[in-house]
Amino acid sequence: MAQTAKRIVLASRPVGEPTAANFRLEDYPVPTPGAGEVLLRTIWLSLDPYMRGRMSEGPSYSAPVPVDGVMEGGTVCEVMASDNPAFAKGDIVLSHSGWQQYALSDGKGLRKLDPKAAPISTALGVLGMPGMTAYMGLLQIGQPKAGETVVVAAASGAVGSAVGQIAKIKGARAIGIAGGKDKCAYVKNELGFDACLDHRDPDLAARLKEACPNGIDVYFENVGGKVFDAVFPLLNFFARIPVCGLIADYNTIFGKDTPTPPWANAIMRAILVKRLTFRGFIVRDFDAKFPDFIRDMPQWLREGKLKHREFVTEGIESAPAAFMGLLKGANFGKQLVRVGPDKL
Amino acid sequence: MAQTAKRIVLASRPVGEPTAANFRLEDYPVPTPGAGEVLLRTIWLSLDPYMRGRMSEGPSYSAPVPVDGVMEGGTVCEVMASDNPAFAKGDIVLSHSGWQQYALSDGKGLRKLDPKAAPISTALGVLGMPGMTAYMGLLQIGQPKAGETVVVAAASGAVGSAVGQIAKIKGARAIGIAGGKDKCAYVKNELGFDACLDHRDPDLAARLKEACPNGIDVYFENVGGKVFDAVFPLLNFFARIPVCGLIADYNTIFGKDTPTPPWANAIMRAILVKRLTFRGFIVRDFDAKFPDFIRDMPQWLREGKLKHREFVTEGIESAPAAFMGLLKGANFGKQLVRVGPDKL
Q: Exposed end of chain A (fewer CB within 10 Å): N or C?
């Protein structure tokens, strides 16, 4: 009789903020690999804001998760059985097998990891998609010059923490925005940003102006909402704004037909007069530059120029609550779910 | 006794749409050049939408014209007297001497024109600032590829007509938008655009969708307003939007503290999801590329690949009414004022 495993499926599409009722924990039989397939056991599951988009229908980067489908997500897995000559039992691989304990793969899109080179969980964080998002968005679009001012929100998170540290490596000033005193202290004292402001401060706009006496040259947009409101008047002529995410607005955007974010007003005029560049991107757009990323980032990590922090919840059952927390900033560092031990 | 000349000064700052009361016709004595100076006699005055911005205070590219100051503008002038060794009596020069019949210059910023190479008025149009605006905005920011669809409004005007024709030279499809049947017929039949739509058509959005079956890859933004509304949903993934002007909104933008153009809503979401690039520019930003412009555009003009049309009013007194007409699209072609004859 097949062994039983657990997975999380999308029970229903959220309207606005997701709730526990939108997810369902299911048992399912551990599958058996067919010709050319491998059986993956999930060790780490990454939770990321983009998943909110996948829960709703409507145009986005990718097709939505179907109702009753397994929630998607990046994973680090152990190969438990293989009928694919490229992979052997015991291999550790980066996959995208979703919110489940076991999955089959035909091997496409799997990348083998070397557990001796770096902790395997970093392949989902600083050395993975979030790290590459920071690296590409900042360097390809933001293009900070020495002495310029770079602002990033969600600064203690997986993407934001890397953005600010890479800005510092390039000689720019890095100003972070994060939620609460502990995160701000970490961003300033441990990550080495020049300053970090609390987005809950009712005087955020004034604080930001003080922290950016020469204005803002690069705003790495992760959040939108009131942070963008505070940033917008401080943008310098020729500022670059890589638009990576709008987490403050995801529940609005994906829950209404006609979002009307107040901070969108006057954007076009500022683009014209200040010759701003706003450019949306997702990390896949820069796949051709992956060799640059994988050359620089592990080296910076080894040299201690790049620090990172993980925020771990235990067990696949914890994923829905952890994800709902992520959308509210309850995590402190890269949100991961430890689905299983490194070795059974 | 000094000869008397005429000039137009800014009598008061407009609120919303400019009126005749915002301008004043004045007599003034023709000045005498001092050490190193030249006396310029205006032959052609260019009228351009950017001048609306100069009439108001508030952040824009440049300082506003002071109240009681001479309205600024590009001119083609004859040198009447010179104490500057770089210029001789009789030289024809490109200047920025404003809405007046005579002006002094220290020679800085003057460019000598060769009346045999091209009609001197083209230095204010297709071979001047508007032509260079089209060339740089389209090629440096829009970067149309063969087979892509380029849309431009104010398509019979100085900038728009060059944008579409350069797009065709580069192998792209060019769709124009203009005001009225005559302008649309000219854009399609004489300039060779693939189609031209009337922005007064109540079904503009539907007509544009029909004319762009593969969506829009480059939208050269001259106007904003309802044209942008029609364009916005048709923007393809990775579309580029050089933001050159927002003429439909100038009277709003420069007349209110908090413009709230309805078409700004949802811009940020589209930038993110479709990975759009919006980039504001003014032609001066590309001064370093002037050699490319002055190599290509006169050649295209000689080869008949680039056509242009001028819309001329007579006498400095006609400038205010012509400018107010320009803001409403009353001109058909590059708006010029013939201030004086080629030779006295």
A: N
Report whether pLDDT(B261) > 60.
no
- Residue of B219, B267, B269 to mutate for A, most A C-beta atoms under 10 A: B269
Residues A271 and A202 occupy one common structural domain: yes
**Same domain as A14, residue A86:** yes
Domain tally for chain A? 2
Q: Domain check: are A201 and A152 in the same one? A: yes
pLDDT band at A115 (very low <50, low <70, confident <90, very high): very high
Per-residue pLDDT band for A111 (boundaries 50, 70, 90) equals very high
Q: Do B267 and A266 touch (CB under 8 A)?
A: no
Considering only alpha carbons, which residue of chain A is nearest residue B248? Answer: A269
CA gap B223, B227 in Å, rounded: 7
Please state, in angstroms and as integers, the Cα–Cα distance from residue B277 to each residue in A266, A269, B236, B239, following that order: 17, 15, 11, 6
Q: Is A137 inside a domain boundary?
A: yes
Helix A158-169 with A129-136: angle, nearest 10 deg: 40
pLDDT of B132-186, one tens digit each? 999 999 999 999 999 999 999 999 999 999 999 999 999 999 999 999 999 999 9
Please name the residues between 212 and 231 in chain B that touch chain A, using a CB distance below 8 Å. 221, 224, 228
What is the nearest CA distance from A140 to chain B, expressed in angstroms? 13
Question: Parallel, antiparallel, or unpaired: how do β-strands B4-10 and A75-82 relate?
Answer: unpaired
**B317/chain A closest Cα distance in angstroms:** 30
B269 to chain A, any CB pair closer than 8 A? The answer is: yes
pLDDT confidence of residue A248: 64
Q: Which residues in chain B are closer than 8 Å to A276, comparing Cβ atoms?
A: 278-280
Q: In the predicted model, what is the mean pLDDT of residues A229-244? A: 91
Do A231 and A324 share a structural domain? no
Domain span at residue B47? 4-125+308-338
Residue A261 maps to a domain: yes
Nearest residue on chain B to A228, judged by CA atoms? Answer: B268
The partner residue sitting opposite A265, judged by closest CB among B264, B274, B280, is B264
Q: Which residues pair with B221 in a beta bridge?
A: B243
A-chain CB neighbours of B259 within 8 Å are 265-266, 269
Indicate whether B146 and B255 sit together in one domain: yes
- For B235, the enclosing helix (H) or strand (E) is strand B235-243
Please give the Cα distance from A340 to A31 (Å, whole number): 17
Determine which of A164-173, A194-203, A262-271 has the lowest per-residue pLDDT on average. A262-271
CATH number at residue A195: 3.40.50.720
Can you tell me the distance from the alpha carbon of A56 to that of A49, in angstroms, rounded to the nearest whole number? 13
In this model, does residue A107 exceed pLDDT 80?
yes
Q: Is the domain of B201 the same as that of B268?
A: yes
CATH number at residue A81: 3.90.180.10
Q: What percentage of chain B's residues is helix, strand, coil (to nearest 5)?
A: 35, 25, 40
* Distance separating alpha carbons of residues B244 and B263, to the nearest angstrom: 17
Residue A344 belongs to some domain of the structure:
no
Cβ A254 vs Cβ A64: under 8 Å: no
pTM of the full structure: 0.83
Asked whether residue B344 is domain-assigned, the answer is: no
Instruction: Identify the pLDDT of residue B251.
Output: 56
- Model confidence pLDDT, tens digit, residues B27-61: 999 999 999 999 999 999 999 988 998 999 876 66
Do A289 and A314 sit in the same domain of this protein?
no
Same domain, B13 and B80: yes
